[in-house]
């Protein structure tokens, strides 16, 4: 047992580098305390083999995202193969769209060039079709066509006259009528003709109809021939108008075979379509549409490979989508309504994702795995991709994938994926572990100062003086709950400095001092401490009945910690033990009420083992013990109260009272060795607040495990009262040491005869248990 001194609870001055302020400290150029993470990350970023994607593992707030982005950007400067992505109309497949990858910036150039070319092409076509040369050629064809028709009709007319008929071409076809002396006969005149002449006419009608059929066939053939000649004229005129523009395009973008092929097909398609377009307005709209490209990824402003962090990885945000518009109640889409996702923008570089966000959205993780395995980027809406909608829709051509995916997440998520997803270990072979703390050495504190200096510089803050720098280190130790470790929750440290700067400027100061840091910490706590204040108020009003003076049998003050997400605080709790004659053993009221967690239940069984091995070596424990956390109505978990519970039970058995001015925390093993616990700072400060309110008199204090001394990073208020002898912290190694302090009696050690010395606590416990056992045995004998 040892009472800690003020000096033992303060941080050694020799640890701190001698500086006057952050003005004299160079900002850090890299992440501090991340040597192993750097090596793993560099390995993952350097590996170009399949499956070597990266998972950065670490708690939130340790700078995982910033670390991943920073290193990815550094490596992105070494990567040269990244592209613009365009989608164009597929002239072969109406329900498809062609994907073309171009060098960075060429997509934008192509888009601008095609916009200009489309205007030029339209003007050229309009000029050509309005030209005198085109009109002359068209007129020539029309005249030639009319002449051919006339020749056929004249030949038919001559033959018809010889047969006694007149023929005439009408809009409904060729009609004929009998004639005599070059004049058509009426029906009345025809009826008056001699029968032999009428018979001749009737015989000649069959010949005439045969001639008319032949003439109609010839006219149709002429129509077909000249229709094709007119179409040839239009096609030739169109080709003449556009060829130079397309040759210019092919010359400018000759590096891309796929683009050259696209231009050639585009030119042929325009030529073929020329026979269907009826007016210049239609020409204008058609050319504008067909010469449009959909520039999905534009890397024209990039000087290195893309590094994309997607903070909202929904299915369309990540993998793109095909949009639709409604026309007269019908959904319509085409290549111009294809939208890219982050994975397209990151292709050729790095995509960074938060694992927690990634797993929130349906189908996203599955689609990402399939994409990485196939190494193909396919844009398809989620309903189509997973068979939820069988409608025929646009199918954009897949794109080759060249991408390194970096995911960051908590250890729990990493191990969950590793354990239950077979694909995960194949696709994410590089694990980068992020430590949440680093050793408290002079060199590491120097690096920490450098980080603080970079926060000041990057955020244009007031500099920190030497005492403020030390206070930040003190706060970092509190975050890690260990004077031998510095917290790597750099986001929280940066926020503290920014808030301290606010307080310094309220004072119109140009320097952040120790007071500003403390004010920022206090204000942070004030914003979230409502529940703690309510609990403390109940303690002050004695609504929660905790004693801080006197001695009580079978009652001890234990210490617990409540966690509420953004704030944790210590809560003293009364633990009571009652004994009675019987063989029921220890009854844990919390466990019997289903208010005990597994770890706490294990701790109770452990202390049963300890008590049995210590006091029941010669006779069985013939006693019943009930133990309870008074006025605790929530779940009790953890083993840090097992020391206090043990002392309370020993007090109840021996009838020796326990000091109420001292609170106890610590777990024990079956040998009675006191083991370290968590939350030591909050527990001590929780009991201190209560004692401070009741009035400190030098008797108050806390017993903690010896192994927890390194975890004590206490507030100045407590340290000052310890220095002045008003509050105490004792460390113990064994249950017996705690007993002696709490009961003001020697615990007692077994002598060579296996007996405890008279008058000691252990002797009184054994004697009481022996009497109870003898009483029960005697009672059985009398029966």
Automatic annotation (TrEMBL):
InterPro entries: AAA_32 (IPR041699), Lon-like_helical (IPR046844), Lon_proteolytic (IPR008269), Lon_Prtase (IPR027065), LonB_AAA-LID (IPR046843), P-loop_NTPase (IPR027417), Ribosomal_Su5_D2-typ_SF (IPR020568), Ribsml_uS5_D2-typ_fold_subgr (IPR014721). It catalyses: Hydrolysis of proteins in presence of ATP. The keyword Coiled coil applies. The keyword Hydrolase applies. SUPFAM superfamilies: P-loop containing nucleoside triphosphate hydrolases, Ribosomal protein S5 domain 2-like. Keywords: Coiled coil, Hydrolase, Protease, Serine protease. The active site is at 640, 683. Residues 550-745 form the Lon proteolytic domain. Residues 124-158 form a coiled coil. Its EC number is 3.4.21.53. GO terms for biological process: protein catabolic process; proteolysis. It comes from the Bacteria. GO terms for molecular function: ATP binding; ATP-dependent peptidase activity; serine-type endopeptidase activity. Belongs to the peptidase S16 family. This is endopeptidase La.
